[in-house]
Amino acid sequence: MTATPAKTGPVTSVARNRTVRQYVARVLFAVLMTLVGVLFALPMVWLVLAPFDATPTLSLEWPDWTLDNFARLAENPYALRSIGNSLILGVGTMVIVVGLGALAAYAMSRIRIPGRDGILYALLLLSSIVTGTAAMVPTFQIITQLGLINNYVGVLLVLAGGILPTVIFILKDFMDSIPKSYEESARLYGAGPFRILRDVVAPIARPGLAFISIWTIVQVWGNFLVPFILLRSPDLQPAAVLMYTFYTESGQADLRLISTFALLFSAPVLIIYFVVNRRYGFRFHGGIKS
Amino acid sequence: MTSSTVTPPAGRVTAPRRRRADDVAGLGKARAGLFVAPALIIIGIFLLFPAVWTVWLGMTDYRLTGLQAASPEFVGLENYTEALTDPAFWNSLWLTLIFVVASGIVGQTLIGFGLAWSVRNITGWVKALIEGLVLAAWVIPASVASFLWLALLDRRTGTVNALLGTEGAAWLIDHPMEAIILFNIWVGTAFSMQLFSSALSAVPPSQIESAKMVGASGWQQLRDVIVPNIKGHILTNTLLITLWTFNTFTPYLVTAGGPNGKTEILSVYIYETAIPGGQLGLGAAISLIMLLINLVIALGYVRVAQGRRKR
Amino acid sequence: MAGITATQLVKEYPGGVRGVDEVDVEIRDGEFFALLGPSGCGKTTLLRSIAGLEAITSGSLVIGDRDVTNAEPGVRGVAMVFQDYALFPHMDVGDNIAYPLRIKRVKRDERRGTAAKVADGLSLQGLIERRPGQLSGGQQQRVALARAVATRPDVLLLDEPLSNLDARLRLEARTFLKELQRDLGVTTVFVTHDQAEALALADRIAVMRAGKLQQIGTPREVFQRPNNTFVAGFIGSNPMNLLPAQVRESRLAVGDATVSLPPGTEQLVREGQDVVWGIRPEYVRWVTAEEAGAIPAEVSVVENLGASVLIVVNAGDRKLQVAVPEDQEPAPGDRGWIVPQLSKTLLFDAETTERIG
Amino acid sequence: MIHHSRRGIVAAFAVATASALVLAGCSGEAQPEETEDGPVTLTITANAITGGKNAAEADWIADWVIPQFEAAMEEEGRDVTVEFEPQGVDDENYKTKIALDLQSGEGADIIGMDGIWVGEFAEAGYIKPLSEVAGDAVDDWEGWEQIPEAVQAAVSFDDERYGVPQGADGRVLYYNKTLFEQAGLPADWQPESWDDVLDAARDLKQVEGVTPIQLNAGTAMGEATTMQGLLPLIVGTGEQVYEDGEWLGDSDGLRDALDLYKTIYIDEGLGDAVLQQEAAGRDTSFQLFAQNQIGILLEGDYFWRSVINPAEGVGTAPMADRDTVVGYAKIPAMEPGSGIEGQDFVSMSGGTGRVLNPNSEHPELAWELLAFMNSAEAYEERNATTISITPRTDVNDAILSEDPMLTFVSEEVLPVTAYRPPLAAYPQVSTALQQATLDVVSGSSVDDAMSAYVDAVTDIVGEDAVAGN
């Protein structure tokens, strides 16, 4: 990386030019990185400051420090609970999709099924329309018929159905890239497929599983429509739904509550993300293989 | 794990097929079926079934309320002809393409790659900070992120106007498409960055070094060593990003499709048609059209990938 | 402990390619057996078929007194060390070694104890809590071995056990393997493409080519009496000189020169037959004064091998390699004579490549 | 790449499995009949939630209605539990949710809804006339006498009562007396025609940093554009959006109204055209008015009660000096006497109400609860902290005197007000109207905006149902 001028004799002009050019490049690089950092940081500053301002506005200003907003939010009977609900939904969906997704992705990675990739692509495409508004009525009807309205099971299953194809798609990529000798080795000692998956494949694919778990939680965390239409009781609604209650009849945002809730709403996923990242480190393996 | 001087294992030459899809764990088709079944059942009931139902809805004049809710009529392909002859649909499709290309393919993918490439050789807090910020933008829930951007771009008290001294500039009115493109880049770049940074770390250093030794410039290294090595990742990334960008509804939270439909990308158009407009049948039909467009794009990518492989 | 008997073993891949083609082999109980051959000869496929990792297309496989042709790998009583060792990166050395015991539901304390004992035996003391990534190549290999022998398998399979080690370590590991195998007395089959390794380690060697067995024998047998020109050329650190020749008047015309037929082959050849004459470079002398049976030659290339020198000489229009003691090293361009040691020469049929006599 | 056959098999499998499960669900649905004497549970849902949207209503239901009603029932010896399912989302989402509930035969026994949804819900068969659901008790209710016909009409359809209105409102022109003073305008202002309004706006334009008039336009504000913008203008020309079975088409009245938009936003720059297109434009207009930056604003009494209300924690853009600075005037017709029914002044009213769920297992009891929620006592309690106009004249007489503005609306505005047609097609026609204002405000000619509107409305209701065709 660093340029070392010739050790003996005078520094040649070529070397000097190179040094200058590298220096300029490094400065430019530093400026660019700073710019990118600022661009990404800028919108978030408001999130960090506004909740602590006695009278937050949309503008970025040094707060008139107070914790009143948090106290007010704590009085809301649903706010804090909704974050807990989001955790239940997020983690619940994660357990379902990562568990079932890993099983399915493993089998699809190791067994040749005709048209396997085609099915995966098709499901991936379908998941995009069904999670949208168009399939809302069918989804609601199915859950009603199954008697799962106002029940987390219904929400979890619908969320899982929408997310599973992508999870399988990404996990299969991970599994494809795991050297087969690990599994063969375990198999020689008499380990069955389920054991192999548990003892060998899952731990080795752990970064992938960690990544997909976080991805799932992020997806569920922000999902408004599914829990909203499938749950009746506000005690059960997750934070994504509750966030919308902090608007007045005419759509005005209550900035004090919104800003504070936004921070509390974002914090758990951010914390989960950084803890998991620190502990497991996210690594993708492979891409779509030939 | 293994050192880079591994000789190709003997006996593998005659059996190249073993590389993939070999039943190394002794799964057997029946057990593989059992492994796949729970996921497929959930997908079948909660994804496929509503999807088929949606296709059916797309052939009716169904509405959520009003007379057509009580007795929807089968209209065949009428919804499709209606959508395809509506200039608003084509306008929306055009906006979507701009949005996907600019924010997804060019924005997220290139910036994500650029970030992964830039931070690969730096360590310590700078890397952690940059990556942390980009990832935080990705993790923050969409409803919060959109609110942050409303605050950022607000015409009167927005942060951008305060910083640039452009008091009263209505970014979301005058440059709505640019705004949601930037917004979507901000939200989504982390995925590409993550994917590419692990892809880059898997490129054998020896290959880069040998390219360096023959005097390849950074650009040449990229073209001749890096890109061929991470082709699979590029495909995965582009495919997923395209699909996601095509279907994202989050920009609605920033501009609500406005002003005057200037940011009415397809997902918003479907929402406007189906919910405020009440025409669920038509909305379902447009959804299916969107699915077909996605399908064409996906097939295109796969074709490109296969074409490359043959060479 | 058990022997292995493969009968008419075939492994056919979809598309009709045969990785293993009608192989008959009998490996004795406690034997150290090598599968030797160039890349792609089917030796690893055969090994994996024994392990049960490849489904056998036809033929039968018996380990001990059990027919395991269609048995699951886990019940065959075999253990295997993979070429890349396949040590689980998420487990420490102890857990890696104890993994087979965990499958057999041995309690944790007990299996950690066994693992520690096995590790001690393989000079892995103090490494029990390390992760595989923190070990050297040699240590990794020993961990893989320890894991394989921890369950006291009937058969130990080694896939290119030494290929991932550097040259110096390889020699040490070779000795170590040999000792280990002798101590355990376990039937061991190993795959290698390195003939020196096979010669050094194995009790018997099976040489394979294109899925077919070429020769089974002791190292001495395959070295001294190779079945065909392929084995002859493959075995030995310096490949055997194989020169086209013709039988003429009970002698052998090799280019311009004529030499005596190898002893005992006189009755087996007919006049005018095209044959291949084989002689190892070690069994040819380079002399600077003419003597009986000597063929005139000129040195073209000299390669220093340390204690000896390998020279390439032109004898008429034929080229031969000759091993020369270091103190007799000639210079390129020197003229002299070569003298083959008649009793060590071999004769192969030019058409079938089979050895004559 | 895609293997159709395989996909087909999977699809068939999934449908089969799902159908099996759905059938199982159906058969298992039968619930034990509750006897009349046994414990009964009633549920109420409304787009109101404690600590959030419409919190006052939610609190009132939870803290007063439910305990009071349960206690009253207990006195009668009946074991009734009332549950409240609060919501707190935007109206579109709330509407979607209750539509889904009703469509599947589920949902709360008493459902709060906007009056303009009644038509489409009734057409869909989701709701039924009250008396059909709960029997004769409905018509015998004392409350009807207290609720003016026009207010009842807000939650009626086809001359049948589908619900009980829960409030009444009216629209006025708010103006800022401080700014008026600076512009040399009277503090006591009552325009007689559109020109009077324009004249005042022109004067206000001379004041630095002030947007003279805010007349909602554009699609971003949704229904606020129609209710607080175009519709009050249209009725001021003597026309109605729906009259004699026909929807408004290319008419002089609509042209005049769009011309007014053009004058304000394009020709004379009296309003902020950009603000109309902002996603949070209405919100911003509130803030600006509260900050003395908007001269004249057409809004409902809601603006007075809940936006600029200085009371702690009530107003979202509180104006401490509201009572002295903010003036209000009736909306003039285009010219005196040109409004509907030859009126000089006009207004629009909306209204929300509560309906009975026809799927209710205890419709009579649900009606009792609904009637209880609309009793004079209930409204008095409901307005104990923040006063609003109730549908009941007896209650209004008692409570409104405290607030001159609401008295003004009740006495001066409600008599001249008009209502939107409670028809299924209305929301779409409304969107077309909003689009027309947007076109004008973003620079299209009135002719172009008009023809686009006529095309759109023809598409929605069919050629025969558009006036002027």
Spell out the blueprint of helices and strands.
The complex is a heterotetramer of chains A (290), B (311), C (357) and D (469).
Chain A: H1 13-49, H2 68-75, H3 79-110, H4 116-130, H5 136-145, H6 152-176, H7 180-188, H8 193-204, H9 206-222, H10 225-230, H11 239-242, H12 255-280
Helix pairs in contact in A: 2-12, 3-6, 3-9, 3-12, 4-6, 6-9, 7-8, 9-12
Chain B: H1 28-57, H2 67-70, H3 78-84, H4 87-119, H5 125-139, H6 142-153, H7 159-164, H8 171-174, H9 176-201, H10 205-213, H11 218-229, H12 231-247, H13 251-255, H14 266-274, H15 280-310
Chain D: H1 4-27, E1 40-46, H2 55-75, E2 80-86, H3 91-103, E3 110-114, H4 118-123, H5 130-134, H6 149-153, E4 156-157, E5 160-161, E6 163-165, E7 171-176, H7 177-182, H8 194-205, E8 211-214, H9 223-236, E9 242-243, E10 246-247, H10 252-267, H11 281-290, E11 294-300, H12 301-307, H13 322-325, E12 326-329, E13 331-332, E14 345-349, E15 352-356, H14 363-373, H15 376-382, H16 393-399, H17 404-413, E16 417-419, H18 426-441, H19 446-461
Parallel strand pairs in D: 1-2, 1-3, 8-11, 14-16
Antiparallel strand pairs in D: 3-15, 4-5, 6-15, 7-11, 7-12, 9-10, 13-14
Helix pairs in contact in D: 9-10, 9-18, 10-18, 18-19
Report on the architecture of this protein.
Chain A: It is found in: Cell membrane. Chain A: The chain crosses the membrane at residues 23-49, 87-107, 119-143, 149-171, 208-230, 257-276. The complex is a heterotetramer of chains A (290), B (311), C (357) and D (469). Helices cover 69% and strands 0% of the residues of chain A. Chain A is mainly α. In chain A, helix 4 (116-130) runs antiparallel to helix 6 (152-176), helix 7 packs antiparallel against helix 8 and helix 9 packs antiparallel against helix 12. Chain A starts with 12 loop residues before the first helix and ends in a 10-residue tail after the last helix. Chain C has 357 residues and is of the alpha+beta class. Chain C folds into 2 domains: 4-234, Rossmann fold, CATH 3.40.50.300; 241-356, OB fold (Dihydrolipoamide Acetyltransferase, E2P) (Beta Barrel). Chain C is built from 8 helices and 21 strands.
